[in-house]
Specification:
With about 230 residues, the chain is of the alpha/beta class. It has 8 helices and 9 strands. The strands form 3 sheets. Strands 7-1-8-9 form a 4-stranded antiparallel beta sheet, with helices on one face. The longest helix is centred in the last third of the chain and has 17 residues. The protein is globular. The termini are far apart. The model has no long low-confidence stretch (mean pLDDT about 90).
């Protein structure tokens, strides 16, 4: 097992064992315990009391974080020629259709989100073999298959994220960067938790939110007090 550095030991000592931290206190603490030389991501891991194997207990949704994620999201808009300028004006990094469909078939996936429209799904659908395993396949439920291409691109650029519970009942997502202020981290976390609660399946029984942890890249997790979210 790798030995902890002096800074890592000091950071770990700042987290009290067994304590449930209010989100606002944890948002400050996660900045204190992060010692990476790069701008680390701030992540949330939420264990839910659901059985993802059952369709009526699947938790999946989208949320637009008030302060974005801090990440530069590369957007590919696959659309008809009459929508290309709209996509470009909204900030899409790549805009077109046939040329990009061919590139993706050849294995190109140098983008983070694909936004397309219903009339061209006949061309986009076959790309599922390449996009599906990477979680890049556009989906009407996540708002990435729409006629309102411009609005969809803007939302993604401004911090809209798509998330779903994994097979272990855990939702994991990034909600910002360590360079964010504690207030920005807390407000993003609160918005995300509010969305999680709104998506509670009617079939889920017992305790819905089992545990919540806040951490940064390579930092120890801080367990949060669910009551501090006021949702």
């Amino acid at each position: 097992m790798a030995k902890l550095t002096k800074k890592q030991k000091i950071a770990q000592e700042k987290i009290e064992a067994g304590k449930l931290y209010p989100i606002k206190e944890a948002a400050s603490l996660v900045k204190e315990i992060t010692n990476t030389k790069f701008d680390a991501s701030v992540d949330m891991d939420i264990r839910l009391g659901v059985d993802p194997r059952k369709a009526n207990q699947m938790v999946r949704g989208v949320v637009t974080l008030p302060h974005g994620t801090g990440k530069e999201v590369r957007v590919l808009a696959l659309c008809t020629p009459d929508k290309e300028q709209e996509a470009k004006d909204a900030g899409a990094d790549y805009v077109g259709l046939d040329e990009y469909v061919d590139k993706i078939k050849g294995g190109w996936t140098d983008f983070d989100v694909v936004i397309t429209m219903p009339p061209v799904m006949g061309k986009v659908g076959p790309l599922g073999k390449v996009l599906g395993p990477r979680g890049l396949m556009p989906n009407p439920k996540s708002g990435t298959v729409t006629m309102d291409i411009g609005a969809a691109v803007k939302e993604v650029k401004q911090g809209k994220i798509d998330f779903k519970v994994d097979k272990y009942g855990i939702v994991h997502t990034s909600i910002g960067k360590v360079s964010f202020s504690p207030e920005q981290i807390a407000e993003n976390a609160i918005e995300f938790m509010s969305t999680i609660h709104k998506l509670r399946p009617a079939a889920a029984k017992g305790t819905y939110v089992r545990s919540i942890f806040l951490s940064s890249t390579m930092s120890k997790g801080i367990q949060l007090d669910a009551r501090s979210f006021d949702v």
